[in-house]
Design goal:
The chain is mainly alpha-helical. Helix content is about 70%, strand content about 0%. Helix 1 packs antiparallel against helix 2. The radius of gyration is 19 Å and the shape is elongated. Belongs to the small Tim family. It is found in: Mitochondrion inner membrane. Its main location: mitochondrion.
């Protein structure tokens, strides 16, 4: 048996989970940058209505994306079993 075959499954799962957390963080930062670049023209003392609506829409899309990713992660990695968990 070589070292690769005797690796601790718990450690492998931990590494996989941490890697996916890192990918999620990269996604969050990318979405934040995109929303900022898309919505913010000239920063000023107050947000105009167009910028406010843009930011609200961007945040809502971010929440949709976060929900989708969370469902996906729950069903494919952290809770692997014969019957995938349902996220509601």
């Amino acid at each position: 048996m070589n070292e690769e075959q005797s690796a601790d499954p718990q450690l492998e799962n931990f590494i996989l989970t941490e890697t996916q957390k890192q990918r999620f963080q990269v996604l969050v930062h990318g979405l934040t940058d995109t929303c900022w670049d898309t919505c913010m023209g000239r920063p000023s003392v107050r947000l105009d209505s167009k910028t406010e609506v843009c930011i609200m829409n961007c945040v809502e899309r971010f929440i949709d994306a976060t929900t989708f990713i969370t469902k996906r992660l729950m069903n494919t990695t952290k809770y692997r079993s014969d019957e995938p968990l349902e996220f509601q």
